[in-house]
Specification:
Blueprint: H1 12-28, H2 37-45, H3 49-58, E1 61-71, H4 72-89, E2 94-102, E3 106-116, H5 122-140, H6 155-161, H7 164-177
Antiparallel strand pairs: 1-3, 2-3
């Protein structure tokens, strides 16, 4: 089963036009309108999970998240491939996913992974999960990152994905603004 919490960011007039269509589509597909409470509760508690991460890990439960963005025509394929890739590494992993942002062309998928933690070597375990998921994202045509940015953890896949012209442009900007190379050396480009 799935749940959808929809937020409409627009003028009151546009919200009044859009909301009945959202309700209609939900009902057409077996859903129902539950009012504003679920959305308000989500807004209040959405940042609580990161604070539980360390507590989970101390109790042998691994938790990680990852994000991507892809066009709608490949969204379902990518969703399945990422989950399959993660479960090949850890068959008992619970992999949840939600759409965090939607656009005219596609959407951002945000995955949450919960798994039995290898307390002897959690870093290797995490790297295996990251590699499997990231490879499936790249192979399916998804973006290695979304609004959280690339970061050092995604460098390997980012360099496979970035267009050479874009890469050279970014390197030129970095060289111009940081001629001595003191700001985050080697983080994205060597």
């Amino acid at each position: 089963r799935c749940a959808m919490i929809a937020g409409i960011d627009s003028s009151l007039q546009e919200i009044e036009e859009i909301l009945p269509r959202v309700k209609y589509l939900a009902e057409k597909h077996g859903g129902f309108f539950a009012g504003e409470t679920p959305g308000k509760n989500w807004l209040k508690s959405r940042f609580n999970m990161p604070f539980l991460r360390n507590h989970f890990m101390e109790n042998g439960i691994g938790v990680d998240t990852l994000e991507t963005a892809i066009t709608y025509d490949r969204l379902i394929l990518l969703h399945g491939k990422v989950i399959s890739a993660i479960r090949k590494v850890i068959p008992s992993a619970s992999v949840m996913c939600h759409i965090s942002h939607s656009y005219l062309e596609g959407a951002s998928l945000y995955f949450t992974i919960i798994f039995p933690l290898d307390t002897k070597d959690p870093i290797s375990q995490w790297k295996s999960i990251k590699e499997a998921a990231s490879n499936s994202i790249i192979e399916t045509g998804g973006s290695i990152s979304h609004h959280h940015g690339v970061g050092f953890d995604h460098k390997e896949w980012y360099l496979k994905q970035i267009d050479p012209i874009a890469k050279n442009t970014l390197k030129s900007i970095k060289k111009t603004l940081d001629a001595k190379g003191i700001l985050n050396p080697g983080k994205l480009f060597d």
